[in-house]
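From the methods appendix. Each design record in this collection lists the tokenized structure first, followed by the designed amino acid sequence. Records were kept in a plain field format so they could be parsed without special tools. The example shown here is representative of the layout used throughout.

RECORD:
FOLD TOKENS (472 positions):
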């Protein structure tokens, strides 16, 4: 089969998979925090007026999410304009669901593309990038395994604080990774020199996980290069330390220092977060809860079991058929496992939340999940690229079975948001207020009952979206 035909098949497969994801996202209900971030509510206004969280520094002020400005402003901006733009082509209610689906699909595409670039080391879309994208795309789950191995949150609000923010951190470390795997290429592109320090600031002030991931990655990388320098240096004492620091490649300092400094700043102002301040638990209790959470999430989780099974098969094949590649990927496995352990050990320090009773959940586990997808994609790519097809007569059907298993198990439910959508359509067509549309399901709320505050901001956002008539 020619490469052009295979490329065409890969593109068709990706389009089908992404189209399937779009339908899933389009048929997902709205969540109870959307309106407060879009109106915006008073507590969100406090965040939007202080991008750098300077009220914490100068006024010693406690308020929600002072270190997550770029997540909040992105959500506010997106849902303030995109639904209104789409209303040029469709009705206001449909524009809301289209906006949510388009947002999640674009984030999924971005994550798949960036992971594919990391795995292949390529700088543009090539056959290898398409192949890897096709391999990892089915693992992005929207329904059945979403609570097990989910990356794109069902909640259109929370996707801005998790999946969306990881676009920034992957993009930030991508040029560093390319220079890391190809040390002879030490030149930093001019666009990176101009944009990467601002990007470090945006990355650090977006979402709750970016700062921890950035600091752990930077610490492990500096530790590795420092230990490598100690082993190779001919000096001792003070000269040894000086020699080691002098020999650290300049691109380490360029990429890792800014994001580390901004991340430390973000952690400091984040300590003034009023959310969860009344939910504190002793640290020992949180670690006990997380042990149970890790068992539930990483051991009993069927979505992860398929990844483990695939990795065992991949590493076994590389061990027997390409031992040189096996030695490289086993080193990568070591560093990813080390990163995951450090990340999980530090996770309880971020505080306790009632909606995450076991501390670890699909959203806080996203860094580990993406790392596992990277391992799966990189080892599978190595096998398909370097081992003769005739030696893979059993492997290829098994790989197809695993990918189809992820695809089929991610069941598409086209009916689950009809109650809410019907309620919003009734509001729009009959020119009602939000509180007039009582039904048996939650409508832009976390519960059927709702609350007075939620009703108020929901009414306001529906006015903003032209679903209900604006009050004079």
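DESIGN:
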């Amino acid at each position: 089969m020619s490469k052009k035909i295979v490329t065409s098949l890969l593109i068709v497969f990706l389009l089908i998979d992404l189209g399937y994801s779009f339908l899933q996202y389009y048929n997902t209900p709205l969540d109870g925090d959307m309106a407060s971030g879009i109106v915006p509510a008073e507590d969100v206004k406090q965040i939007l007026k202080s991008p750098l969280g300077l009220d914490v520094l100068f006024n010693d002020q406690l308020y929600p999410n002072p270190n997550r400005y770029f997540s909040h402003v992105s959500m506010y901006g997106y849902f303030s304009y995109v639904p209104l733009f789409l209303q040029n082509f469709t009705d206001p209610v449909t524009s809301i669901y289209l906006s949510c689906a388009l947002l999640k699909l674009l984030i999924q595409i971005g994550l798949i593309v960036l992971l594919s670039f990391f795995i292949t080391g390529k700088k543009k879309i090539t056959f290898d990038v398409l192949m890897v994208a096709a391999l990892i795309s089915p693992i992005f789950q929207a329904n059945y395994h979403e609570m097990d191995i989910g990356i794109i949150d069902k909640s259109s609000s929370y996707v801005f604080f998790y999946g969306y923010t990881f676009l920034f951190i992957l993009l930030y470390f991508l040029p560093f990774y390319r220079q890391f795997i190809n040390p002879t290429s030490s030149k930093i592109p001019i666009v990176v020199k101009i944009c990467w320090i601002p990007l470090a600031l945006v990355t650090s002030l977006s979402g709750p996980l970016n700062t921890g991931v950035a600091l752990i990655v930077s610490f492990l990388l500096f530790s590795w290069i420092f230990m490598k320098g100690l082993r190779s240096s001919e000096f001792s004492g003070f000269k040894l330390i000086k020699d080691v620091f002098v020999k650290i490649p300049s691109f380490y300092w360029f990429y890792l220092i800014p994001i580390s400094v901004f991340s430390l700043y973000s952690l400091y102002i984040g300590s003034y977060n009023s959310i969860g301040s009344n939910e504190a638990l002793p640290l020992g209790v949180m670690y006990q809860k997380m042990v149970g959470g890790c068992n539930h999430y990483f051991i009993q989780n069927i979505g992860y079991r398929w990844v483990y099974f695939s990795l065992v098969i991949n590493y076994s094949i590389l061990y027997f058929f390409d031992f040189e590649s096996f030695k490289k990927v086993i080193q990568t496995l070591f560093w990813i496992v080390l990163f995951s352990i450090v990340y999980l050990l530090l996770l309880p320090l971020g505080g306790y939340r009632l909606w995450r009773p076991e501390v670890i959940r699909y959203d806080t586990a996203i860094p580990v999940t993406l790392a596992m997808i990277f391992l799966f994609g990189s080892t599978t790519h190595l096998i398909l690229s370097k081992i003769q097809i005739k030696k893979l007569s059993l492997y290829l059907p098994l790989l197809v079975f695993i990918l189809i298993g992820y695809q089929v198990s991610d069941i598409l439910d086209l009916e689950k948001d009809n109650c809410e959508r019907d309620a919003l359509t009734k509001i729009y067509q009959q020119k009602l207020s939000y509180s007039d549309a009582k039904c048996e399901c939650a409508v832009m709320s976390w519960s059927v009952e709702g609350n007075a505050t939620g009703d108020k901001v929901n009414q306001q956002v529906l006015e903003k979206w032209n679903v209900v008539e604006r009050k004079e």
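APPENDIX NOTE: Residues 92-120 form the longest helix (29 residues).
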